[in-house]
Amino acid sequence: MPRGLFITLEGLDGSGKTTQIKRLAEWLEKHASAVNAAGAVPGRASRVLVTRQPGGTETGDRIRALSLDSKTQGLSPMTEMALMFADRAQSIAELIQPAIDADRIVLCDRFTDSTEAYQGGGRQLGSQIVLELHRLLCGNLQPDLTLLLLPSLQSSLERARRRNDRVTATTGADESRFESEKDAFYGRVWEKYEEIAQRESERVVAIRGNLSIQEVHEQIVEAVSERLLLAEKK
Question: What is the pTM of this model?
Answer without folding.
Answer: 0.88
